[in-house]
Amino acid sequence: MLNKIFFSFLIVISTIFLLLVINFFSSSAPRYHEIVFNLEQGDYRKKKEKLTFYKSTNNKKKIEHFEISSKRYFALNYSGYLINRNCGSIESGITELFFLTDKNGFRENQDKLYEETDYVLLGDSFTESICINKPNDLKTNLEKKNTTVNYLNLGQQGTNYPEQLNILLSVTKETKFKNLIWFFYEGNDYETKLKNFDYSNFKINLENLKSQSKENVVNNINYEVNSNFNISLFFKFRVFLAELLSGLGFFVKYFVKYTDLLDYNDYEQAVKIAGKFLDNKNVGDRYIYYIPSWQRLTTYKSLKLNYYKSNPQIIQLDKLKASIKEIAENNNFIFIDGVDFFMKLKNPLEVFHYGLNTHFNEKGYQYLADDLYSKIQ
Q: Does residue 44 sit within a domain?
């Protein structure tokens, strides 16, 4: 009987050791969905909040930022409304994002930039810098590089390329600007299609962004996230197991069929429309910056080995990137490959909160600004 118990114990230990060895040499996305989320009660957001809360309890690092109620922030004199993105519980688990908008509802722009600016930034929540307060956001990091260069940030969460094109054509119609930087996020910026796009009649409605007036700011700010979950030993074990199986998940991908992500002709039409608009405005350099996804960056360990390029999911993402690059360059856009920069980091997952599938943390936006600025000089 004792021999059987010992033998079973030895098998378990050997299996765990083998998984650890596999994780050391290869990596993939942790199996949170299968082992953590699928065994939890509640909706998807609540499940993410619980995992983030658990990770944040051991990482209560306070990040310095400009509080909206401070004189320093008020001196910036943004003319719009107070926005709370209500994202802290699924991002850092520590701090909420609050900001004031400009006259059109975009994040922290001086209204005069709608008359004339050096660069227009266009994109989704990564461009807006979701859940990262000033001065750790993308735009402020860029401004630190050269105080004589200014940026009009038209990034808005939840948008794909058709909505972003809509913003460009509608909001900058009367704006004089020298250059455009259009960000493409590999994770989901291809999900909405441009079909039957009539750019001459597009209008943008930002009323849904307006939450409360600027005069109420001082008495209504609480940056602290107040999540609270019961974290059992079983939950901790499931998280450990999900991460332990991440290396094994790399090999599972070889048995999954991945379809094309991009409607090539649809995206090309969007870029052509943007190019014609920029030509008519005599805009100089126009860039498309390709932001790598969390799913890609989780495979970073295999980059040093010979099986990174053979990963079916990487093949899928590389085809997406190649298509974006080809369309960009065929339409006189300068393509900037952010994959090269981020995959060369010692640990690319350090740009996300606790290595989870979130938006960038403070370090991520600093890195993004560093790479972008070095490429547009």
A: no
How many domains, in total, are found in the chain? Answer: 1
* pTM attached to this predicted model: 0.89
In a domain, 209, yes or no: yes
Residue 86 included in any domain: yes
**CATH number of residue 124's parent domain:** 3.40.50.1110
pLDDT tens-digit readout, 174-199:
999 999 999 999 999 999 898 765 65
Cis peptide preceding 348, ω within 30 of 0: no
Cα-based distances in Å from 205 to 202, 213, 277: 10, 18, 20
Q: What is the pLDDT of residues 201-217, one digit of tens each?
A: 555 544 444 444 455 55
Half-sphere exposure (Cβ direction) of 96: Cα atoms closer than 13 Å: 17
Beta bridge partners of 84: 98
Which structural domain, as residue segments, surrounds residue 121?
Answer: 62-233+262-297+314-376
Residue 376's region, left for phi above 0, alpha for psi from -120 to 50, else beta, is: alpha
> How many CB atoms neighbour CB 309 within 10 A?
11
Q: In what order do the strands lie in the sheet with 286-291?
A: 151-153, 116-122, 176-185, 286-291, 334-337
